[in-house]
Amino acid sequence: MSLLEILIMVLVLIVGVLIGYFFHRYQADRAAKARQDKADDILKAAQTQAGLIVKGAQDNSTKIIQAAESEIKERRIELNKETERVEKRRSELDARFDKIEQREQALNKRQSQVDKRGNEIEKLYEEEVKKLEQISQLSQDDAKKELFAAVEKEARGDMARIIRQIEAEAREEGEKRARKLIADAIQRVASEHVAEVTRAVVTLPSEEMKGRIVGRNGRNIKAFEQAAGVDVIVDDTPDSVTISCFDSVRREIARRALAKLILDGRIHPAHIEKVIEDETKGVEKVINEAGEQAAYEANVGSLHPEILKMMGRLKFRTSYGQNQLAHAVEASKLAGILAAEIGANVELSKLGGFLHDIGKAMDHNQDGTHAGLGAEFCKRYGVHPVVLNAIASHHHEVDQDSVEAVITEAADAISGARPGARREDLEAYIKRIRSLEEMSMSFDGVQQAFAIQAGREVRILVKPEVIDDLSSARLARDIAKKIEETMQYPGQIRVTVIRETRTTEEAE
């Protein structure tokens, strides 16, 4: 390549670069001009829009100013009216205040007159009192005492009459309602009653069996008594022996065991122990079944097995000849009926009636009353607090906290008080009758006391010069309260106080 070609190429290259530079600058100038034109257009549009906005704002401000001026004018008018009303009210108050001042002045003037008249009346009253004291020869205090004594005597008579009237009305209504509730409850309950005693008689096939029961040197009977925990009485009663024991469960086990031994014929110490052990298990099974059956009959559920087991022991427990398990079922049914009639909790009432005597199944082994023992036992197995209170309070050893507790007590009394439910021996009956009469005679003013209707009622004759009508009512309540606190008895005892005044005149 020659130098000339090189120069030409360099020249062409320079010319191309210049052409590209100018072309690029031309394009940049056109773009800048276009942007400038666009910016001018936007500026003009903005200026136009700003003018429109300014004009609208001016129009709006004018309208707002006009509305504000109009509102201020209205407010000013209202304020003027309110000012006129306030001024008018003030004038009225000023006028009323003037009238009140005039009335107060008049009242003050009248009060001074009244005070003056009162002083005059007081002076006249003192003069009259002095004249009356001179005429009656009594001081004012003595006259007050005589008047108060007369008023008190009259008031006491009226009070006694009112008390008797209220008591009569309450007794009539209460007895009517109680008879209905009790009649409905009793009519709806039917149960079997078993009379148990502390002895069990086992019939023998022959008199020879007595010798086999006693054994050589009495070893058989001693082994039997020791294993069973009972007393076996072999006397002259033909073809029978008697088992005696305070514990009804042990007595039942011994009766069954002895009957089985007699039937088997093998009577010796080793076999005796085995039979008694077997019968103990059998009686425990009977106890469990009896508790479950009683709960089913009473329609109470959700009881712990230990509670049912303890209730089953009542099958062999009696009170005044009444079987305690049957009594519990009967009391539960009665409590449920009474609760339904008066709107109380039926389930808790039935449970309270069913469990109220559960402590009798354990009270011969532990210290304490059957009510307290039963409540403590049931508490260990999560029995409802209302039921626990019903158990503990059914003999008023603790306060009754619910109507269900009262129902439990009533059901217990109804079940035990009906004819034929319970019986007493002659000695206990005579003792209770004498206790009632002696307790009644211990009160001041009592002349005679008679226990009638098999101890269901006490009639008391009082000294009329010592006991008045009002005191008679108080005396009846006091005697009834003392009987409740000191005596144990089935049912209710009525206390009747009789006050009699006789006046005899002879005409000649």
Write a structural description.
The chain contains 14 helices and eight strands. It has helices at 3-136, 140-187, 208-214, 219-228, 248-264, 269-298, 305-313, 324-342, 346-355, 370-379, 385-393, 403-417, 426-441, 469-486; strands at 199-203, 231-233, 240-244, 318-319, 322-323, 446-452, 457-462, 494-499. Among the domains are: 140-187; 199-417, Orthogonal Bundle (Hypothetical protein af1432); 426-499, ANL, C-terminal domain (GMP Synthetase, Chain A, domain 3). The chain is mainly alpha-helical and 508 residues long. The chain is 69% helix and 7% strand. Helix 2 packs across helix 14. It has a three-stranded antiparallel beta sheet, with helices on one face. Strand 4 and strand 5 (322-323) form a beta hairpin.
Kindly list the characteristics that best describe this protein.
Hypothetical protein af1432; mainly alpha; GMP Synthetase, Chain A, domain 3; 8 strands; 3-stranded antiparallel beta sheet; 3-stranded mixed beta sheet; 508 residues
Topology of this protein?
Elements: H1 3-136, H2 140-187, E1 199-203, H3 208-214, H4 219-228, E2 231-233, E3 240-244, H5 248-264, H6 269-298, H7 305-313, E4 318-319, E5 322-323, H8 324-342, H9 346-355, H10 370-379, H11 385-393, H12 403-417, H13 426-441, E6 446-452, E7 457-462, H14 469-486, E8 494-499
Parallel strand pairs: 7-8
Antiparallel strand pairs: 1-3, 2-3, 4-5, 6-7
